[in-house]
């Protein structure tokens, strides 16, 4: 499996899946989650509103997408990482490891982590 850390426009990454983090109680109206919510047709904001996606550490929520724009990825994995002010390098390592394990089980060969 190959992973890429993405700083630029992650939506244009040449990967099968995108893995993004969600902070505890984060809303889908800004930042990366805003773009991911648009790609999923509002499913991220619906999962947040229903309480299914809370951003708790270790929580995972996967979406399949069929984007008509420049996005090559067909899956998006949202990983909860807890409170924003407690997200450290250790949290980044844990989240990227979680993404690797979950996406490997789904036979994903390449993913981008943002």
Describe the overall structure.
This protein has 114 residues and is an alpha/beta fold. It contains three helices and five strands. The radius of gyration is 13 Å and the shape is globular. It starts with a strand and ends with a strand.
Explain briefly what this protein structure is:
The protein is α/β, with parallel strands linked by helices. Helices cover 30% and strands 22% of the residues.
Keywords:
single chain; 114 residues; alpha/beta; five-stranded mixed sheet
Strand numbers in spatial order across the main sheet: 1-5-2-4-3
Sequence of secondary-structure elements: EEHHEEHE
Distance between the termini: 17 Å
Radius of gyration: 13 Å
Low-confidence stretches: none
Describe the secondary-structure layout:
Blueprint: E1 2-5, E2 17-22, H1 31-39, H2 43-50, E3 60-64, E4 75-80, H3 89-105, E5 110-113
Parallel strand pairs: 1-5, 2-4, 2-5
Antiparallel strand pairs: 3-4
